[in-house]
Specification:
Chain lengths: 361, 361
């Protein structure tokens, strides 16, 4: 089992990466909030707070439900709460732990690939209020993060691909050495956490989190360095809109990165390697996945692009690769040309991706 | 206008003490949450979020209502929220500001005597969940505290007395020099913020907050030094219970301090001066106030005393004065004698106080 220590302005927390140790770790908690979708091996006598996680309960009412359950489960000032699940569980547990009796310790065990390979560290909670997405939230790091890669064994392939896309993005943003190492370590998404690739899966996870660690420690509050982790995301968000949110976010990020590469075509070996990697991810998806990519609404794409939060009145902002392989936040004037070029790049990336879905190699 | 700078683990904030400057300060805020019970001079075009403050809305639903109003009022990441009111407004605004868009600046203007002379600094939010009092909360200091003593002009005498009781307690806990200075500065509660005593009221307020400042800076998280600010409170809480919460908390604190003095009778000049001061507060109350002190349930008093949160399985804990005038947290075994002695002291203090209510000097 390996571990990382993440420094934050509120102290340091440990990230343990391994396989098969989740149940034991969780049984040391006072109570544990678990998404019933996660097949958690029984955590002994630890009281379980079942919380069916979805966007609709990422609300203050959802947080309140958890707070009441924590009280009923005997959580007190010196207690520690366990949280086992994906992003919504992390959001709700972060806020609940931060305000329960003015703040208690908590331990987070991510169970989605996106959470394991990316969002389990540097997390900020995001809670919807009155239908306004992510209006409230805060920063309250867990005491420990338990990344048990074996939990990924039951995940469907598109959820795995989604996590790999964010992981590839992080390592690409970390520079060519970190991306080369990612490619060298990466078993395919289908192999991740299989009995024969457990060791590589652990090494890969640790590598990705170590690269992300640099970003979150250098720029805890998302002011500069960390912003380039939005690579692919301006395109991805607009594509999700154009495809009516029918695809996992991470898959949209994969296509979004391919679009960003096509948009300003840096023709570096790293860009080509990333583009090839995205194509390889498409091939791992089942053939019928292409149905979810079939009817993009390009007007909706353009409206989403124009309302991107990163932009200003005069400019749209994209994270783009330069000739030297580095990523940076770049401004483009809000002209018809910018919009048309971006749309053409996204259209090309989506077509390329769709063509490769389910393709035999 | 005078100012204090309070240091906390999350940075420093300013406390401005003066008269007649609230409206101007508030009009600089993006929006302001105000208890309609407060007669706030119009804050120009600043959007006002009316929030009728009482214990029943000190809930997450109440906080959510404020969050939605903040969004409607145009509060954004760089905005500052004003909050004008007593403890409940402070509680709700603390939590709302701390999580709105992951935390925005806020400015607090206390409008009760308790808040002006005590709780406006060192504040921690307390929110009820599912009827469990103060189950959640956090620490999120305002950017600025605006203490405009002229706001107190409209307050009824018992609310003034309540504030003075906490102020006397803080200065007594601060040592004989600080208590002497309190007595020298203090206009009577009835005179506080009157046109002829505005300057003394400002000096008094600043003195009390300066004494409290030492406690909260020395012990931000209530671990040691700050605990002695609970002087009188073990008795006060049990008395509130015995009198079915018919009296303001601060008045119960006044009687509670007199009870603590009677309980271990330190016979110091400071203790006598405090006891005289409490008697003087009773005299300032209107004659009919004694009706609210008339039917104590001493069995309920004893049950409340026995379940006091500061105690352990073996001991009850009181903050008591020693022969040298200093206050300390002292343990008494949970014997019948302890309970009977404490009840006798409280009974005596309540009788002495009641006899003096409305007494002409």
């Amino acid at each position: 089992m390996s571990s990382l220590s993440i420094r934050t302005s509120r102290g340091t927390y440990e990230v343990l990466v391994g396989a098969g140790f989740l149940a034991k770790e969780i049984s040391a908690q006072t109570a544990v909030i678990v998404d019933p979708a996660v097949r958690l091996t029984t955590p002994g006598r630890t009281p379980v707070i079942a919380f069916e996680a979805h966007e609709g309960v990422k609300t203050l009412a959802g947080v309140e439900r958890v707070l009441i359950s924590m009280h009923e489960a005997g959580v007190r000032r010196g207690s520690s709460l366990g949280a086992v699940g994906g992003g919504v569980i992390q959001d709700v547990a972060t806020l609940a732990s931060s305000i329960y009796m003015r703040g208690i310790n908590w331990t987070y065990a991510p169970t989605t690939m996106m959470a394991m390979l990316d969002s389990c560290i540097g997390g900020k909670s995001s809670i919807n209020v009155a239908g306004i997405k992510n209006l409230v939230g805060n920063i309250y790091p867990p005491e420990r993060v338990i990344v048990d890669v074996s939990v990924a064994q039951s995940l469907p392939i598109e959820a795995r691909i989604a996590g790999y896309a964010e992981a590839a993005k992080i390592c690409f943003a970390g520079g060519s050495a970190s991306f080369d190492q990612f490619l060298a370590l990466a078993p395919t998404a289908a192999q991740f956490a299989s009995d024969t690739h457990m060791e590589e899966s652990i090494l890969l996870t640790k590598h990705v989190l170590k690269v992300k660690q640099w970003f979150i420690e250098t720029d805890e509050f998302d002011r500069q360095e960390r912003l380039i982790l939005n690579f692919g995301h301006t395109f991805a968000h607009a594509l999700e809109s154009a495809l009516d949110f029918a695809l996992p976010h991470g898959v949209a990020v994969a296509i979004g990165m391919a679009a960003a590469i096509r948009y300003n075509d840096p023709r570096t070996s790293a860009s080509r390697a990333l583009d090839d990697y995205v194509a390889g991810m498409a091939r791992q998806l089942p053939g019928d996945f292409s149905g979810r990519l079939a009817h993009p609404d390009w007007e909706r794409f353009q409206r989403a692009l124009e309302s991107d939060k990163k932009g200003s009145a005069a400019y749209l902002r994209f994270v783009l690769a330069a000739q030297d392989g580095s990523l940076s936040l770049q401004e483009r004037d809000r002209s018809r040309t910018t919009i048309e070029d971006a749309t053409a790049a996204a259209r090309q990336a989506l077509e390329d991706f769709t063509r490769r879905v389910g393709e035999q190699t």
